[in-house]
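Researcher: I need the complex structure. Ligand is DP6. Inputs:
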Amino acid sequence: MKILRGTAQANPNIAIVKYWGKRDEKLILPFNSSISVTLDEKLKTISTVAFSEKFKEDEVYIIYKGTLKKLETKEELEKILPQLEVIRKIAKTNLRAKVVSKSFLPIATGLASSSAALCATALAAASALKLKLNKKELSILSRLGSGSACRSMFGGFVLWEKGTNEDGSDSFAYQFKNENFWKDFRILICIIEEREKKIKSRKGMQQTVATSVLFRKRIEMLPYIIEKTKKAILEKDHRTLFEIAMKESNNLHAVLLDTWPPIIYLKDLSKNVIEEILKFNQDGIKAAYTFDAGPNPVIFTLKKYVPPLKLILKKLKIKNIIVSKVGGGAKVLKDCHLIDKEGRIILNF
Ligand code: DP6
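Model: Output:
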């Protein structure tokens, strides 16, 4: 029985202006536009999607640090299954899929691993079924798995336009500056906790939309922040950009605290990092902290400030730090499939 395979690689992205809150849960349409920077290949996810009559049902596996895990619960599968359904619809096929994703980032720690994974699966599935989709369509397909994934289709600095159409046709990401634009821009990923977060973004967002008054204010304010952020990036004005990034992260976490029941992702160590970065910036802004839906700090800075920042983090006993440059967009890989021609998983390729 024939097996149609496709493999793709995508890098995670970190939002500078965060996406939080959906105006449409099913189509994953956001209340606000967001801006991100794509990380480099160190933190990539590689996904192979195979379609065949051989497969009786969709099966999804992840490989992390050499171990294979099958995703079984409804919660674990809630992102990928709707994406596969849409792909089958476009390709006019009923074939079931086997999906294998190999991640180089801890999963579900609020470190944007799903952005890379759902982007890579969208591209891999489209490649397996030989769909001729452009980048905009692929971004939309990624979005249908996980909102932030639509930004990982592109490298560099990326804007996800929230769009206004009910069918989501104008809600996709595009690159406004590529990965070579800001050569000395650096992103420090600090892993202080590898455990899965208690409240997943999806659930947390619903709670916020339903209960937070501050959230409404945030949505009103964000179009202006988006414009300011874009301008700061285009002018490589790191001081303005870093200040916006810190305020934006604070704003998101203030909204999270305003949510009922309150959502608290930051830990004592996260707050210590905030204090240390503020101290480091006393004589001029040289770095920004930002936090997504988890306690792990991400720091935006410039190359020359990486050594002093590493020292500061070391003093806080943070050992697991990954330094990333601005990375490229998702791409199809021709020869490193994670599933062989018979449909078997290849653990070490
Ligand atoms: C805090 O994209 O993971 O990282 O669309 O429900 O899958 P779903 O959510 P997801 O949320 C990301 C939230 C964030 C901010 C951001 O990346 O913009």
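Model: Summary of the prediction. The longest strand covers residues 45-52.
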